[in-house]
Amino acid sequence: MKRIYHNHELWEEVKYNMYGSINPVNKDLIVNRVIFFFRNEGLIRKYMLYVIKNFKYSCEHNLTNVNMNRVAWLGQAAVAAWNKIPEDITRIAWNYLTESEMSRANKIAQDYISYWEEENAEKIS
Fold first, then answer.
1. By C-alpha distance, which of 29, 44, 59, 33 is closest to 103?
2. What is the pLDDT of residues 37-47, one digit of tens each?
3. Mean pLDDT estimate for the chain
4. Within a domain: residue 3?
5. Which residues of the chain have pLDDT under 70?
C-alpha cells in the first residue's frame, strides 16, 4: 500500500478533540459514555462510517500506515466524531468492555477499513 502523508493541520479528528482534553471532574461520566458507545452497534457503525466518509485527510494519513493500529485509530476517531471525546479517554473505557464487545467493535472497524481500502484502491496502490 502506498503511504499517504498529510500535515496534522489537515487532520479532521483534531477538530473533534481527539487529541485534546476534558474536565477531569467529568472523567468517570465520560468514560461511561464511551463504554455506552462501544456497547451500541448502531453508534459504532454510524460513526465509523462517518469517519470513513468525512475524514478524507485523516483517513489517508492513518489508514495507509499499516505499521500502526488502524483499528484502534478508527475507533478513537469515531468516538471523537460522536462526542468530541479524546483518545486517551477512549483507551481507558476500552478496558471496561468484555472480550465479546471488543471483538465486535474490532470486526466492525476492520470491515470499514477494508471498505475504505476498496474505495481508495487506485489512490493507494
1. 44
2. 999 999 999 99
3. 98
4. no
5. none
65, amino acid identity: N
When divided into structural domains, the chain yields a total of: 1
Residue with cell 477538530: 15
C-alpha cell at position 55: 475524514
Does residue 5 lie in a domain region? no
Say if CB 62 and CB 73 are below 8 A apart.
yes
Task: List the domain range (segments joined by +) for residue 118.
Answer: 12-124
Task: Specify if 107 maps to a domain.
Answer: yes
